[in-house]
Amino acid sequence: MNELNLVGRLVRDPQFMANNGGGVCFMTLVTNRGWNKRKKEPITKLVNVAVWGDLGERCANNLQKGSLISARGFVESKTYEKGGNKVFTTDVILEEVDFLAKPKAK
């Protein structure tokens, strides 16, 4: 089973790129992975994600840096040739996104 569930805040505003098939929204989330007892601070990870089509457009129009989301998706690996070298990529594709909270006030 290739399923991924994430809860995190956007570290920057979403970037939407339109194309003939609708478009894609790129976002970076910061997620908590646990607690570092020695340093007394959360363990955080940055996750780059992509959201395609209408959902991606809604994300781009309604989310901003600091927005809290819950999302479900999958991991997709690809290979392609570039300059005679084989390139491997791993992408996180979101299929469901719930808008949980707006950015915290400063």
Characteristic terms for this protein:
106 residues; mainly beta; OB fold (Dihydrolipoamide Acetyltransferase, E2P); five-stranded mixed beta barrel; 6 strands; 9% helix; globular
CATH superfamily: Nucleic acid-binding proteins
- Please tally the helical runs, counting DSSP H or I stretches of 4 or more residues: 1
At CATH level 2, the architecture is Beta Barrel
In the CATH scheme, what's the topology name? OB fold (Dihydrolipoamide Acetyltransferase, E2P)
Portion in beta strands: over 45%
How would you sum up the major sheet? 5 strands, mixed, barrel
Shape summary:
globular
Model regions low in confidence, pLDDT < 50 over at least 5 residues: none
Radius of gyration: 16 Å
| Total number of domains | 1
Please give the number of β-strands.
Answer: 6
Description:
With 106 residues, this protein is mainly beta. The protein has a single domain, classed as Nucleic acid-binding proteins (OB fold (Dihydrolipoamide Acetyltransferase, E2P)), CATH 2.40.50. The chain is 9% helix and 63% strand. The protein is built from one helix and six strands. It has one helix at 53-62, and strands at 4-10, 15-17, 24-36, 41-52, 68-82, 85-101. Strands 1-3-4-6-5 form a five-stranded mixed β-barrel. The longest helix has 10 residues, at 53-62. The mean pLDDT is 93.
